[in-house]
Amino acid sequence: MKIPVIVDAVRTPMGKSKNGIYRNIRAEKLSTHVINSIFERNENISKNDVNEVIFGCVNQQKEQGFNIARFASLGAELPVETTAKTINFLCGSSLEAINDAARQIMIGEGNCYVCGGIEHMGHIPMDSEYDENPEYCLTSSRASQVMGYTAEYLFAMTGISRREQDEFALRSHVLASQADWSGEIVPTPAHSPSGAYTNAEDDEPVRKDTNIDQLGNLNPVFNPQGTVTAGNSSAISDGASALLIMEKELALEKGFSKSRLIEIKGFCRTGVSPSVMGLAPISAVTELLSKSVPDISGKNYNLEDIGLIELNEAFSIQALACLDGLDLIDEIDTKINLKGGAIALGHPLGCSGARITTTLFHLMHEEEKDLGISTMCVGMGQGVATLLKKCE
Amino acid sequence: MNYKNFETEIKDEVLFVYFDSPGKSVNTFDRSSMDELNDILGNINGDHKGIVFASRKTSFIAGADVKELVAVSQESDDAIIEVVKSGQEVFNKIEDMPIPTLAWINGTAMGGGLEIALACTGRIAEPQAQVALPEVKLGILPAWGGTTRLPRLIGADNAIDIICSGRTLRAKEALKMGLVDAIAEKDANFEEVAVETINGLRNEIEKRRKKKISPIKLGMIESMMTFKFAKVTVSKKAGSNYPAPIKALEVIETCRKMERDEALTYEQTAFVELSKTDVSKNLINIFFGERKLKSKAASYAGSTPPIKKVAVLGAGAMGSGIAFGIANKANVKVSIFDPYDNQIEKSIKSNRDYLMNKVSKGYITISECNRVMDLIKGTTNLEEAVIDADVVIEAVPEDIRLKKSVLRESASYATAETVFATNTSTFKVDDLKEGLNATRVGGMHFFNPVSKMPLVEIVKGEDTSDGTVGTLCSLALAMGKTPLVCNDCAGFVVNRVLMPYLVEFDHMISSGIDFEHIDKVMKDFGWPMGPAELADLVGIDVMVHASNSMVEEYDYIKSPENSFCKQLYENNTLGQKTGAGFYSWKETKRKGKFSDSGDKKPSPADVEKRLMSVMTEEAKTILNEKIVDEPYEINMAMIFGTGYPPYKEGLV
Predict the structure, then answer these.
(1) Which of B208, B229, B256 to mutate to test the interface with A (most CBs of A within 10 A)?
(2) Res. B651 pLDDT band, cuts 50 70 90
(3) In angstroms, rounded to a whole number, what is the distance separating the alpha carbons of residues A87 and A103?
(4) By CB count within 10 A, which of A25, A186, B282, B497 is most buried?
(5) Does ipTM exceed 0.95?
(6) What is the DSSP letter of B448?
(7) Which of B155, B177, B219 is nearest residue A273 as measured by Cβ atoms?
(8) Which of B445, B507, B517, B545 is catalytic?
């Protein structure tokens, strides 16, 4: 079986969805930009080498309709022969896009992919044109369609306090504002608040100056007696991310040094009851590790072996419940989201999977960790996880 | 077989059962009709290939007979259970039939009327049909299988919404939710469509029955989530004063894993418990009170001549709303007059926009919109408006000289028989009859907003004839309103009781009591809003003028010396209309305290006592002065005119 490797990963700075820096920039432009950036940074390959562009995007309507991956690919002037497809796996879309490329490489369907994710929540809000199925409540709770309610449900189940949730949220902002993002952020066309044309380099949603008291003063949004607030939920933002994924031998042939490459060792998706979608990473990570990992020596990994984990922060309570379920609470400071996460950066639905994997890729190099997992919960009760390993 | 309440016919081997209660305008289930229905079901044999339940009246079935309900609720628990159980058993018989059964819903199917339909294999509605399970509005819950069947048929979340709110669904929404299976096309042949639908259901009898008698399909986690959030939503909406919605939710949750027959026993016990509550008794009294008022008005209306044209003077919010109600509900030609062209335009436009919104949502057709708009004619020519009008309603600003002059001028274009009605809220009818035929002058006082407030005060001046009262009652009833006939005094009934309450409120805040605290206490009492918020909504200028009139008219009402309300008025802090009053307002959204009346916070009991006793005293005075005949009339006026909490016993 062939070995898929991540060669490079980039992302745009995140923009606030409400009147933010990308208010006048379209989703296709952000997508094309990140694809072009891959090639600007990597002279060893050319656009002609790419078999397929696979992007994650959830709300595939308006400027994100009609297969945005194809528009991005053509816009980036990849050959017309390079195919493109857009995947909707809700929040896990672009992580599944990465997994899909890995799968294709493993079976020999292709050897060079540009994967990524895009979501412009400012132009196309999450519930845009959503027409709720009236028969849904025959088998599932209506409330499970509102992610905030599922978060409140986790609070009812776990009792993880408001204070703990706010502290985790604060951590996300502090780490994101202090992190060195220079390895992954590419300056991106945008407009400043005053309207000037600019190339953005900083994540707009991150609140550098927030504190525990400010977070504590916010009112719960979904349940007046609850704990989930706008402050301890993921921010609403726009962004795009892209990764270059190749078959290992080809990458080496093209001159990429082995120490750069990070293998995709495995991936999986799991399903849970829609109302507890937030807990899905627990089963996704557990199953990921217990499945036979395609490795020559047939080695299975344990959670202790994993040096870094990127767990998408849909809500503080959701992330904390997963960490609790995986027995990782004590490892938060050494392994989990070391540059903060979606609470500070936002969770542009189709982009997040690629975004957290991009961050993981660079962190594994910076922190010199061999094994990493990126995982996320997916609305309507699913989870997805991917295992990365430094090339030996 | 000859039945009193039903007619039966066989067509294409399908038994058609037509409900047609003699001497009533709507079908209701009482002991006799239930027994007859039971008998009909007992006679079903192999010759019948299906049953269609329909109505010969303009609507399907309005529910159980409420008078019988009240009588039953005063008997022993076992006796109540027997009545509930026997209805359940009759409907079970329908559900357990080996042949397909269909309910053909025309007009409205409410309460027991919807419950019989739920027991059927399938349901078909006419395009304008409406359905509801409004039992919680009478403080009880659907106990003839509705609480059991609805969640199993359309899902727990949908059923909780419908049962716990008691709201009405139109045919389209009912179809979307799966409550009805089909909507008959407008000009379809009833019998053909019914037979075709029966045949369409034939292969699904067992599948459909099983769905309705089996446990709710939600798994444990989804079920916990559903009921957790339902509890939050239902208790927030119902508040702590109304037990029925919460009890209904409890029954649905408790019975979620039960089969039909076990679940039905819980409906029985919940029904017994709720029917004995004071809340239910009070709500049912209101139900009867409303009917009594309407029938009193109907007997005044008796044989008054039909109204062919109405003139409304003044195209402000009230005038526009009144004109709209006359055209829309009463289907009568109306001329609306205002001296200002742009005011007329604004009025016509707002009515048209309202209708077009309904058209865009599919609630009404464009031709229905046109029907209404074609009936309304705006004009700046008073003569044009008044000529040929059978009734002239004066709705100009609250200025006595303006009102008198408009009425006098209108009289010159009218005949001696033209009925004149004033919409004044503070002047006496007798003060406005100068230059008019006094026997043909009355008050017709609407409440704001006209489209939503059901009450209309029909006021008799000293010389007003019964025929005049009758004509105004007839118009009010045709508009779908609940008329209250009363004698003349400043403020009539509602404002006369409300103003002393607001003046007392002014006394309290002028002495340093926190108005926000008062508002909270009054909301907890059950009012939709407290006096400060009400003042902001009505307009502090309106309130100050009205209280000045009341103080002038009634010497026992005295304004406070350093009136806080007058201060606000003088500073032009008039409430919602100026963006600030007691509270800050962003359009219609309340944004927080704006003014400060002090920080004294007397106990809720004291606040309640001060404010409510003033109201009760005024109500008693009204009775003594014979402004109305009976206490229930004041109670109804307060509930329908001001939102006085229905769960409580009335004011007097």
Answers:
(1) B229
(2) confident
(3) 14
(4) B497
(5) no
(6) S
(7) B219
(8) B445
